[in-house]
């Protein structure tokens, strides 16, 4: 791990060795804290409990304290409506402030993998409690209940709250991470422009909701396609949130590219580093074999078959999803969820020395000469910081663009093509970004095989 | 954590700080070691590679060394056929011997959750490499390839080998864990006796295969239903493997029971302990509220509604799977996978002081007076041991039955009923356990709702 000379103190986790009353009262808008505080078991810890409308038929009448009023159906789910024992928590002195994670498309298959990974502590570590706020639709509400029931039955010690709902203004409340997975699939005969418009409206609405109710420094990862332009729409509708906090997921492409290079070179995949995906999460994307390294050496020095690199490699990365659908009969939910967890971990842990990761991020101010005001996949490094009390090096959720990359004509030509596509997509959604009348001249279908 | 006075050194993991040549030659039957040894990169570490028939069209011609001969298609998959860099591994000095895990029903939804949990290090920890050997059927072989591809694309650093196949004698080779998830679902109009016979034949065959090729101390967890009797059939066909190594999964029932008690008592689920599921994984199972504890107190002292405990609690636990199917439209794959991981973790980590967990295990020698020679869910504690070099307390994969449990008439009556059912199931499969002619007099359908 690289220890950078100038370390800031993490602004993101706000780690505390214990929860003080003063801190509780500061976050006065945070319902769960109020609830915990209200029921903080001082004299009768064992009797402290709280009723919840979802389970009111099951729970004993409260003995010590009453809930602060009737809750809406979506405020909490089942066992997660119950008091978490704050006193015992304080005794461990290790718990940190709960991280609020909102997830859209929460009843879908990608989420079904991702939520259980998050709840098990895989992303934020074994001493970091989390709350999951799940956004579904009217149609998927029962399935959301099923997901919440399975989360109950899993007894994850780190999972302190689960909330389900269909209103983003409720579900995104106080979100510190928003994982926007849900999107409408493309219907039969629908053009990419039509898909951009339908999903763009969803992401415009979700951007407004994040702007209104999420944590002002919320990190947003857009997975629903077309994810780059959806992320652009989302950030344009959330002016209070820093534009650099919005990500479009290209990590699965990066992971697949690393695996294909490993296969070709005959090395295990952990030997491949510095893999950039440039541009759009579409068939114009550019897996960059010029800057990537194998065992620390430039790929072109290790893989002598340059024809394969130029003509087959990119296609192998892009066709992976389609081949998977043929083999497996479903899209790649598990590995997509892994790549979302990877993307989050990359932001909250220090990037290994000399390496980087790819993410679709806001281009304004980029050092590569890429057109500004787009969401474009580029090489990133997390910004390390020191956790205040424990002196542990970690990422703070923020990142910086990598400067020491090289370009050749071949790479630039392909970057220009994916840039042109993203500019065209942007013109298609001008009505959703507040930039006037949309004009759509997308030349071809560039959806990745196996994705909707 | 309880530190027991007499600690043995772990026999299970055989942890080593590094792999010595001498150790490699000892495990001479272990193909992967031979392969690694053969390609151990001494003078030209970067060039060492190995071809694999699956990917021979993709991989460069080998430079330094040749593979030791043509491999069968099922011997390894894709990137997992490639040399793992043993030299770098030695430099870290932290890796342990790879654990071989075989999984049947590997193309199904439960496995789709479980395999990614195992590969991420959730069960065996962040410094424990694993190998996954996946058993499917002719029909599911393509889906198995899809699973292997998604595992490739996930770049799990701990996942050193993936093998797929349809022959248990190949897939169970050297298995140290066998997770038997695959089973035939019940067809329309099929009686439980018919299901017992069809699945019993599968588990008899798999028991023979384990006996022939698995590690002699393999731990076997049977998930496919009817899991208790399947586990009994399996162990009867594997006389070389200790009978106590076979488990029938009742951990999901235990987890659900804990959650329902927490809901009723109005406490978070981490306050419920000492939860036993007695008997069969069927509707005759006995979730034991007499011995269970909430905040360290007997459940009956905390939940005063004893009528609910006697008349509703068990039903709530058992109907959970059925309700989930209604809500979610699928069976509970994610929480089942969590419970399998829980069951494994319980065996390889020390059981917290005073607590226990449930598993369907062999009854011979049990202290409760339950009929011998059955697989019956009972309260277990893992056996702690010290890891040789690192002095870390862990479970060694073995367990002992808990002695300090109490019984009352109500509990005994119900235990007798589930015992009678398991004795009847055993008579149904006498032809598969080598005990003569089967005689089937199962009185009623006791499959749990939501399970096949």
From TrEMBL, chains A, B:
PANTHER family: MALATE DEHYDROGENASE (PTHR23382). NCBIfam families: Malate-DH_plant, MalateDH-SF1, PRK05442.1. The keyword Disulfide bond applies. CDD domains: MDH_chloroplast-like (cd01338). Residues 250-431 form the Lactate/malate dehydrogenase C-terminal domain. Keywords: Chloroplast, Disulfide bond, NADP, Oxidoreductase, Plastid, Transit peptide. Belongs to the LDH/MDH superfamily. MDH type 2 family. Its EC number is 1.1.1.82. Residues 100-247 form the Lactate/malate dehydrogenase N-terminal domain. SUPFAM superfamilies: LDH C-terminal domain-like, NAD(P)-binding Rossmann-fold domains. It is an enzyme of class 1 (oxidoreductase). It is found in: Plastid, Chloroplast. It comes from Xanthoceras sorbifolium. Homodimer. Signal peptide: none annotated. It catalyses: (S)-malate + NADP(+) = oxaloacetate + NADPH + H(+). This is Malate dehydrogenase [NADP], chloroplastic. Pfam families: Ldh_1_C (PF02866), Ldh_1_N (PF00056).
